[in-house]
Amino acid sequence: xxxxxxxxxxxxxxVLAYVAAPLPAVTLLWCVLVADxxxxxxxxxxxxxxxxxxxxxxxxxxxxxAVEAVFVTPVLVAFHRYRWQWLNAFWFVCGGLAVGxxxxxxxxxxxxxxxxxxxRAVMQGILVxxxxxxxxxxxxxxxxxxxxxxxSQGGE
Length: 156
Known about the structure:
The protein is mainly alpha-helical.
């Protein structure tokens, strides 16, 4: 009995996924920064959160497109060629968590060594950077992939 088969959508949806996936992820990061500022009193941007959001969307969108070009494009090409059915939402979550944390750690290295010290900093990075990556990965897979149900012929 044939079951559902995962397949890529048309190129229009794939391009939309490349553009749309970083935007909710960066918006989530902005919401975390606002909550951190309001609830814990950490003033990272002062009162300029309305100015920071468009800059984060632009910069985060560019970084997101770069990350997608390096990490997602080879997976899409391989999926298209080999029809990997094991590539599901679970693997997108794992990949998004890993890539988001890697990108967060690289940005931490570039902005200064204060980001690296202690397990607390690592766990905060996983919670924030990793979940930003998970959000982008889940949005990408929801837009770029679809399920097709194969119906058997002949009443089997």
